[in-house]
Amino acid sequence: MTHTAKGPVHGPVKLADRSMTSRRQFLQTSAAFGAAGMAGLGVTRARAQSRVEISFASAAFFGKESFGDLCDTFNESQDRIFVRFIELPPPSSSTEVFQGLVQQLARADGTPDVFSQDVIWIAGFAEAGWALPLGEYFPDTKDYFSGTVAACTYNNQLTALPWFMDSGMLYYRRDILEKMGAEVPTTWDQMATLAAAAQGAGDAEFGYLWQGKQAEVLVCDAVEIITSNNGAILAADGKSALVNQPEAVAAIQFLYDTIATTKISPQNVLSWDEEPSRMPFTAGRGTFMRNWSYVYPIAQDPAASDVVDKVGVAPLPAFDGGKSAACLGGYQLGINANSKYREAAVEFLTWLSSAEVQQRIALNFGLAPTRANLFDDATIKAEQPFMASLQSVFTGATARPITPKYSEVSLALQSGISKAFVSGNVQAEMDALATEINRIVA
Fold first, then answer.
1. What residues does each domain of the chain span?
2. Alpha-carbon gap, residue 325 to 315, rounded angstroms
3. Type and span of the H or E element at 217
4. pTM value?
5. H-helix segments, 37-93
6. Which UniProt keywords are given for this protein, alphabetically ordered (predicted)?
7. How far, in Å, CA of 441 to CA of 127, rounded?
8. Is residue 218 a contact partner of residue 413, using CB atoms and an 8 Å limit?
């Protein structure tokens, strides 16, 4: 579906004397737009008869407005560039979104000029030569969370620009911990001890709820717990597996033990993704849960939750000597390497990822910004207090394995870790998994 922006849609018009436009002139033009256009998001300017037309393709996220409305604002804020919005399916249909982008980018005809992408697609698009390296246009990324910058980097090149994010986090029952006189756990052992105690006291049926289904969310859970033990799935160069090393094996063993040994998790977690694990928690049957940010408003809704005003959120625990890690989700921005209008695309990308637009997305879509300082923004704190409280969670955001073979690696991880949970022979299954991953990434 293509969103029709306000006003006439002009056909592609080349920038006048484009070959004569220097890099310095372009940066000066962009800076001038940044000072005027970005600060006045709602200001309408006179529209020129001839404009460069570029396209922006994105999954359809909806809130108080749509991404098509963002394009309308940009189009009305200046008179040189017109953005046509190409609406892809919603992120819940991520396979369809991915296929739609692949089909368009593979044509190498420059459409779409700008696109948003799930973090797990960034390396693949870069490896295929479809994503324009962005380092020369955005040399300073210090305002973004480091985890999002890492996820946007492939082969030491920035190939995507951070936009909005989500990550895994620890939900807990504040009332149960208060009754026990306990603090929020910061280590996995503390969490397991408190979870078992709550079960023993009859305060909760389940101690710890998580997602063990053979699906992408299992990879997310694995990334978090392995990283929190100073382990990794792949080496930094992405060319060899580390999933069978002691740190990773111990982390997966811990998850297995929550079912088989400590029994703080039900056997059913092995068939659960996000919603089946969320429902018993908001029904008041669990003490701790790993999940995404979408759960919090549900937990606070009296029509859907039995634990209203009883739920807290914190960074996920870590092992002794490790640090909290939260699997990074969200969509980031890219430019088509075959775009015929790079300067215009960079200008629009700069606007989309600006602090002003990220604030607007946070307020109107409920999607968390990737700029750390926006978590101190007074308006976001007032209108989205839960989001504003998540800075410590997002600080530990960790990318999934960065490899152009990600889809194959993910399927191997899902299968290998699931086999470990069924057999209980974690080391042997992780050894077999490492062999398979090494075959894939070789």
1. 2-163+330-398, 168-325+405-441
2. 8
3. helix 216-227
4. 0.85
5. 67-77
6. Signal, Transport
7. 13
8. yes
Q: Is 298 left (phi over 0), alpha (psi -120 to 50) or beta?
A: alpha
Omega into 317 within 30° of 0, i.e. cis? no
Any residues with CB less than 8 A from the CB of 228 and at least 6 apart, and which?
188, 251, 316, 317, 318, 319, 322, 323, 324, 325
Amino acid at 385: P
- 168-325+405-441: CATH topology is D-Maltodextrin-Binding Protein; domain 2 (3.40.190)
Task: Give domain 2-163+330-398's CATH number out of 3.30.470.10, 2.60.120.10, 3.50.50.60, 3.40.190.10.
Answer: 3.40.190.10
Using CA atoms, how far apart are residues 272 and 415, in angstroms rounded to an integer?
15
Helical spans, DSSP H, in 310-405: 342-352, 355-365, 378-383, 385-388, 391-395
Q: Token pair 């839960």 is at which residue? A: 386
d(CA 37, CA 50): 19
Please give the backbone phi and psi of residue 318, each rounded to the nearest 5 degrees, phi first.
-135, 165
Measure the CA–CA gap between 50 and 386, rounded to whole angstroms.
Answer: 44
- In sequence order, what are the beta bridge partners of 329? 166
Q: Report the run of H or E that residue 53 belongs to, with start and end.
A: strand 52-59
Q: Is the pLDDT of residue 36 over 90?
A: no
Separation of alpha carbons 319 and 114, rounded Å: 41
Report the side by side order of strands in the sheet with 169-173. 206-209, 286-291, 169-173, 311-314
- Residue 116: CB partners within 8 Å, gap ≥ 6? 56, 57, 58, 59, 163, 331, 332, 333, 334
Task: In whole angstroms, give the CA distance from residue 188 to residue 203.
Answer: 20
Domain 2-163+330-398 identical in fold to domain 168-325+405-441? yes
Q: Order the strands of the 331-335 sheet from edge to edge.
A: 2-3, 81-88, 52-59, 114-118, 331-335
- Copy the structure tokens of residue 380: 């976001």
pLDDT for 8 beyond 90: no
